[in-house]
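Request from the bench team (R.T.):
"We need a structural guess for the complex before ordering more zinc ion. Sequence and SMILES attached. Just send the tokens back."

Command: build protein-zinc ion structure.
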Amino acid sequence: MFDYHIHTTYSPDGQMSMETACLRAIELGLAEIAITDHIDMDWPNTAIPPFDVKMLDRYFEDLGKIKEKYKGSINIKKGIEIGLQPHILEECTDIIQSYPFDFVIASVHLVNRVDPCLGEYYTGRTKEECYYLYYQEILSLIRSYDEFDVLGHLDYIKRYSPFPPGEKDHLLCNSLVDDIIRVLVSKGKGLEINTSGCQHASKSPMPHPDIIRRYIQLGGKIITLGSDAHRPEYLAFEFDNTLERVKNLGINQLTSFTHRVPSFVPIP
Ligand SMILES: [Zn+2]
Ligand SMILES: [Zn+2]
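Reply to R.T.: structure attached below.
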């Protein structure tokens, strides 16, 4: 199948070259991958240098070369994972419109400039408050921003939350999650299923299958599957199990993107 969320050494935390990622994808028998390195502009932690926007010309050059080199073996899409924050949305739009991306994931990695992967985000807040603030930020950002194809790892906060995972965590802030889904559907945007959640305490993909079901119920049609791999061993991580769960939700196709236009491919 397809892996539509892969990081290479263009991402500050990526640990594989584009070539290594492609060779691993071919070895796994994937038909198509999207390389989706991170762009997080105005990232607060200067100790981790972000993907410099000035590198995008070289990024596209390298993507073009690798696409050509492996074109008989695998289809490679030129993607990006763009990190949204309220004060940079115009710059995000400019970047996406200035380059010939096949596929754009919009992700929210910061709430008021704090990454929920850090303990300080949780200090002095209840679990509900932590989830509420995170979802509220997503809702406000995707209401104001249009240059993306899918929303990345919707319940990403569960990957790092220090609170013990609960069976009903996916029901926290239910109505806010519904509002997010309604905005996605009304804008014709997709939802990513990100299997990196399976490596963490929740042991389930992001978002939770019930949230994916809700997206379908409310009329959503565009679903992509991505591992969020930063290392070769995590490409297509837990795809077999996740595809079974997805099919049990009544979903029988995944989405592929070319020049930001979706097409649908049946799940085998
Ligand atoms: Zn992300
Ligand atoms: Zn990612």
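Two things stood out. The pocket of zinc ion (ligand 1) is lined by residues 81, 107, 109, 152-153 (CB under 6 Å). The beta strands are 2-6, 32-39, 75-83, 103-107, 150-151, 190-194, 223-226, 253-258, 261-266.
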